[in-house]
């Protein structure tokens, strides 16, 4: 069973994502912000990271920068799911941080499932 | 005798020279008068010299040598020799062996025996008088009267010079003060304007930031709502009956509607703030039309409408410098509206043509049409022909306003036509084949 870590600072969002991922047959885990995400990534192996951008106090881009700097966890496959339009973050940043897919919230679950399966190579 | 005359002439020339040389150095009338009074006292061997000016029917002393003029020393207008000199504008000589000359009391007290009154013409009018007084009994001669004329002219010229200088200085000072005032007011105005501009910039940035945050923050809670509704519909929490399913579908529909509204508000706010970045590149217009049509063919099939497209050959090969995504967005807004307002069985046509240096794209439908009076308002924000239509057909009322703004950024224009209610409508836009400078910048 593929293991996915969802990172966001909104508890309802995390719980909803967790239920969704479990119904689709994944082992879903959640992290409430950067610190918890990095800690969990170091503890266990994950196949995919679903990361929000608008998080406080550390946003998704800065969180991902820190993850990419740490060789132990830097290779994690990442999807960014956020309410912020893609062009506000910028293609260059997304490319540099190796963001494989960008999903605009509010997400459509069927579309989202397709994106997840594509990234996981299923 | 000849030597006397020579001595006298030499004395006169020396006096004129000294007076001319010194008078020019005087910086004010007091200094000037002191120079003259001293020289005149010496030259005429006089004990008293007074310079007095005519003011409102009186002759009032201004500067005096050899007498105190602190007590009233004025000469009222009348038959005195002093007034005579002024009125006739000519020197007057008087002599009194007994020292009984008609002069003001402070002088009279000293028993003056001889006097020479010489009028001073300032700016063309006899306005002052020089009174040279001897206490000893020695008359003034006609030659003295002649000499005094030359000296008085020198004095008058210098008084005129000083007054003109003073007047000029005063004018310069006043003008400088006024200029300084104006400059100060201008600087204050500039400072105020700068302050207002900074405040506006801050406000504008705050507004942008507010819209940005608000729209993102509004979308954040929509995500779990949407996920949860979809999870229910997917049966993640158990099977639902049809009524329950419809309830969740309604939630989803309204989440979508709210999301679109937020997106549209965001687009409008960004357009207003000039924050939308346009990527102008050469595009085949026919290809852009094909791409948009692709999405709508299915929609029309589902809703049992006929969809046709008319792209003339010249348009298929035509490359125009546009932001391809934005042009497709405008076509989609038009096609969305056409689908929304055309009943089942109707028809929609997407056409293009090249006309007068412009590419014209139109979307025509056989739908519900537009009343004539509503047409001019269609492209204004939040305008809806009929509020019940919004409830029935959805929409944010911003789509056409966005379309207009996007096309105007291309240097183009938008329009709508309809033969009336129930008679379908046509929406169009035209963009120049050659991108104009002002149209190109976002």
CATH architecture of chain A: 3-Layer(aba) Sandwich
Overall, the morphology of chain B is: rod-shaped
CATH topology of chain A: Rossmann fold
Give the number of DSSP strands of chain A.
Answer: 5
Main sheet summary of chain B: 6 strands, antiparallel
Multimerization status: heterodimer
Strand order of the largest sheet of chain B: 3-2-1-6-5-4
Q: Strand content of the residues of chain A, in percent? A: 15-25%
Radius of gyration of chain A: 13 Å
Quickly name the level 1 CATH class of the largest domain in chain B.
Alpha Beta
CATH homology superfamily of the largest domain in chain B:
GAF domain
Please report the number of helical segments of chain B.
12
Give the C-level CATH assignment of chain A: Alpha Beta
Which secondary-structure class do the elements of chain B indicate? alpha+beta
* Count of the domains of chain B: 3
Rg of chain B, nearest Å: 51 Å
The average pLDDT value of chain B, as a whole number, equals: 87
Total number of helices of chain A: 6
Low-confidence stretches of chain A: none
State the strand order across the main sheet of chain A.
Answer: 2-1-3-4-5
Task: Walk me through the structure.
The complex is a heterodimer of chains A (122) and B (442). Chain A has a single domain, classed as Response regulator (Rossmann fold). Chain A has six helices and five strands. Chain A has helices at residues 11-23, 34-43, 60-69, 86-89, 91-96, 109-119, and strands spanning 3-7, 27-31, 48-51, 78-82, 99-104. A five-stranded parallel beta sheet of chain A has the order 2-1-3-4-5, sandwiched between helices. In chain A, β3, α3 and β4 (78-82) form a beta-alpha-beta unit. Chain B is of the alpha+beta class and 442 residues long. Chain B folds into three domains: 2-171, GAF domain (Beta-Lactamase, 2-Layer Sandwich), CATH 3.30.450.40; 201-273; 281-432, Histidine kinase-like ATPase, C-terminal domain (Heat Shock Protein 90). Chain B is built from twelve helices and 13 strands. Chain B has helices spanning 2-23, 29-44, 81-88, 105-108, 142-233, 242-272, 285-302, 313-316, 324-340, 387-393, 399-408, 437-440, and strands at 48-55, 58-65, 75-76, 92-95, 114-122, 125-134, 281-284, 306-310, 319-322, 347-355, 358-365, 413-418, 425-432. In chain B, α2 (29-44) packs antiparallel against α5 (142-233), α5 (142-233) runs antiparallel to α6 and α9 (324-340) packs antiparallel against α11 (399-408). The longest helix of chain B has 92 residues, at 142-233. The N and C termini of chain B lie far apart (105 Å). The A-B interface holds A 10, 12-13, 15-17, 19-20, 23, 54, 83-85, 87, 105-110 and B 215-216, 219-228, 230-231, 234, 236, 255, 259, 266, 277.
